[in-house]
Amino acid sequence: MRLITSFNDELYKASGNTLLKSFLQTKKFNDKLFVAYEGKKPEIRDKDIIYKTLNKNKFLSQFLEEHKEIIPSYLGGIARHCDCKDWEKRHSKYHIKGCHYHWMNRNLFRWLKKLVAIDLFLNDNLKGKSFIWLDSDCIIKKRLNISILFYLFNSKDIFYFKGKRREAIETGIIGFSETPNAIKIFNEWLDKYKTGDFLLSHRWDDSYQFTLVCKKYKKDCNDVAEKIKSFNNDIIPRTPMSQYIDHNKGLHGRILGIVK
To answer: Residue 43 belongs to what domain range?
Structure first.
C-alpha cells in the first residue's frame, strides 16, 4: 500500500512523528509512506519512508506571489484581517459570503500543500499505484488489508468520507486507485488552484474544491460514509475505517491552536 502525508516542523512535532512511528509499527513488505515536508527533514529514517521537500517548491512560490493579497502573514502572505464581526474567532458566523478571512479561506495555502504533495508522489515514478492520503494527525492502528481496501474502493476510482449532511468531503483520508480516471480527477482538483478557479466559490479550501470536482464524477467515487446523517464533522470514526486508522480531527486547530 502507498500512503502519502505532509507536514512542516511544527506539525511534525505535534503529530507527524507519531504517524511515522505508527507506519513503521504496522507496515508489511512493499508498503511505502511518501512524506512531503517543509523545514527540516525528519530524523525518522527507513527504507520504506520516501521524503520529498516542499522547500522552494516552484508552484507554491508562484501561487503565494500571485495570491499573497488573500493569504495571511502567518502563512507568508500580506492579507490583513477582514472587518466582519468576530473575525478573530475560528468559525465566526458573521463573515460575508466568500470573505477572504473566513477560516476555510484564509488557510487555503496551508491545505494546498496536500495537493502539491500528491502531485510530487505522482511525478516520482509512482504512477500506476493506488494510494491513500493521510493528514498528519492520523495514527495507523492496523495495516489496511485487501478486504478493507476492497470495501473502501468498492470497485470505484476514488473513495472518500462525506455523508449526507456535510457540505464538503472530509479530506483527512482519501483514496485514489491506480486508474487513469482517478488521476484525471486529481488533476482537475489541482487545476482549480493552477487556474484560480477556486476564487469563483465561497469556500476556497481543498475539501470544498474536491467536492465540486467529485460531483462531476459521482459514479466513479465511493462515499464510505454515504448513509451517515450526522452533522458532526468527525465522520470517519463512524465507519469501519476507524478500526485501522485514527484521525485526530481538531488536534492542530481546536486543541493545539496551530491552525489559526
So the answer is: 2-55+113-254
